[in-house]
Amino acid sequence: MSDREEICEVMSRYCWHVDHLEWAEWLDLFTLDASWQAGDFGPFVGREAMTKLTKSLETLVKRAKGRHLVACEIVDVAGETARMRTYLIVAQAATKLVSTLGEYEITLARQAGRWKIRTLEFNRIEAPAAELAAQSA
Asked: Which pTM was predicted?
């Protein structure tokens, strides 16, 4: 498998593990000193902070019952580090609407032969469907 394929697999697993509340597996995708931020939420830096983050994420995921989808991955590899930019779409099962549309900016490091997320930043590029419906009412 190429570096690009392995890195895309990391993000597929990232989404799957979030949607299925598999937090140990999700945390294993990150370096021990990783940083995670979504807009003004965060940053969460290091394993202890990331573990606390999973409690907040679990509440959101259980309530939303959505599925995370990444698309249009751009991957640049430079030796043992890489950069990935990708779109994120979160679709809600109950409403069949896109609730979140945004972009991930991610850096990764190869550790013990595996690509792991070092930094992840999410930036929303559109308001959630409920906010849009309220604005147009």
From this structure: 0.88
% residues pLDDT > 70 (the chain): 91
Q: What is the mean pLDDT of residues 29-43?
A: 95
Closest CA to 62 of 11, 13, 21: 21
- Cβ contacts of residue 131 below 8 Å, gap of 6+? none
* Mean pLDDT of the 49-76 span: 91
Three-class SS of residue 121? strand
Residue 29 is encoded by which pair of tokens? 């995708």
Question: What are the percentages of helix, strand and coil residues in the chain, rounded to 5?
Answer: 35, 50, 15
Asked if 110 and 1 touch (Cβ cutoff 8 Å), the reply is: no
- pLDDT of 16 > 90? The answer is yes
Cα-trace Rg, the chain: 15
Contact status, residue 115 vs residue 3, Cβ threshold 8 Å: yes
Query: Which domain CATH number covers 23?
Result: 3.10.450.50
Range of the domain at 115: 3-136
Q: Is the pLDDT of residue 56 over 60?
A: yes
| Domain count of the fold of the chain | 1
